[in-house]
């Protein structure tokens, strides 16, 4: 599944389209600002003329021509920002706005592929793009606490289903706010339909929108990939699977959904330990969700797996009534 030339070209064409759109939006903002604040035109001309004049001197052999240029332009730029704010515009209104500020919509930071490029590869090769349609409705904007009871309580914490989810959503928000500064992991468990997958999708949406690489797998899909990578006798197929295998370990966030629905055996348990352990060591965040009670999970996947998860993950139990049934009763389409 490595990128071939046409696939690579397809991704790079998308970056070219992004850059063209960035420039077009800046042109439109510039026209609007110049119409509202005419003095900006003269100031922009001074900045351009200063840069050109100094460049000519430098090319003609004056090595000191660019001394102080940065400071002079910075001073003029400060004046421009002040004029914009006085005219009712944001101070950065005439600066280029990028979909990915990290790489400035080029796909690369120096010679390294940006995380947004990695996500583009994931979307192109591994049918992850279908999750984007789901994320249009399953996100924090559409999240509702109305499905969680304020009377049903978790006996071990004393918190109601509503209070439990309010606390957990706050934790997830904090997880997102600090995502680039610290590595955290979540293990969501609870009955079917209490919002484990929906909450994972909310987190995925926020990270993808901020140019992080996210891979979502059901447990069956993940272990099917591991099985094919390990046991395939077709050399070309094995080579094709290697890149996806590496993305599982290297992506910014890996979501393993519905753990416990796959056919579990010693191979699955060993591969789960490998995945969990390697990502913990690499300080890469992972979210795991399961319908299994904790004791059943431990017995199913071994004490060794459970030990790594209990020591490296925030284990959170979700409680409440099945939201899918609540929606069906209310006549709301899932």
Automatic annotation (TrEMBL):
UniProt KW Protein biosynthesis keyword: no
GO MF terms held by the record: ATP binding
Domain AAA+ ATPase: 182-295
UniProt cross-references to Gene3D superfamilies, sorted A to Z: P-loop containing nucleotide triphosphate hydrolases
UniProt record, GO biological process: DNA replication
CDD domains: AAA (cd00009)
Entries under PANTHER family matching the protein: ATP-BINDING PROTEIN RV3427C IN INSERTION SEQUENCE-RELATED, CHROMOSOMAL REPLICATION INITIATOR PROTEIN DNAA
The protein, known as: ATP-binding protein
Annotated source species: Candidatus Limivivens intestinipullorum
Source taxonomy: Bacteria, Bacillati, Bacillota, Clostridia, Lachnospirales
């Amino acid at each position: 599944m490595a990128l071939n030339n046409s696939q690579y070209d397809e991704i790079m064409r998308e970056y070219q389209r992004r850059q063209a759109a960035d420039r077009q939006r800046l042109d439109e903002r510039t026209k609007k600002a110049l119409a509202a604040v005419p003095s900006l035109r003269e100031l922009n001309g001074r900045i351009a003329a200063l840069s050109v004049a100094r460049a000519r001197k430098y090319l003609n052999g004056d090595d000191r021509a660019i001394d102080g240029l940065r400071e002079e332009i910075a001073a003029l730029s400060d004046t421009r920002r002040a004029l914009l704010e006085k005219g009712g515009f944001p101070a950065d209104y005439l600066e280029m706005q990028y979909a990915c500020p990290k790489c400035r919509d080029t796909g690369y930071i120096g010679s390294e592929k940006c995380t947004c490029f990695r996500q583009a590869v994931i979307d192109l090769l591994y049918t992850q793009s279908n999750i984007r349609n789901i994320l249009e409705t399953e996100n924090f904007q559409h999240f509702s606490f109305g499905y969680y009871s304020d009377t049903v309580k978790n006996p071990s914490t004393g918190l109601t289903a509503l209070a439990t989810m309010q606390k957990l959503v706050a934790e997830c928000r904090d997880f997102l706010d600090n995502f680039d500064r610290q590595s955290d992991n979540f293990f969501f468990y609870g009955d079917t339909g209490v919002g484990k997958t929906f909450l994972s999708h909310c987190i995925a949406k926020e990270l993808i929108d901020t140019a992080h690489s996210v891979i979502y797998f059901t447990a069956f899909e993940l272990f099917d990939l591991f099985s094919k990578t390990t046991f395939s006798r077709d050399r070309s197929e094995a080579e094709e699977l290697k890149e996806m295998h590496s993305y599982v370990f290297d992506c910014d966030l890996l979501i393993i959904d519905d753990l416990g629905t796959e056919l579990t055996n010693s191979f699955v348990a060993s591969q789960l330990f490998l995945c969990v352990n390697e990502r913990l060591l690499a300080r890469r965040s992972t979210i795991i969700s399961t319908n299994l009670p904790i004791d059943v999970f431990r017995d199913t996947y071994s004490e060794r797996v459970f030990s790594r998860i209990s020591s490296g993950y925030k284990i959170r139990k979700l409680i409440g009534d099945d939201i899918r049934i609540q929606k069906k009763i209310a006549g709301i389409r899932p």
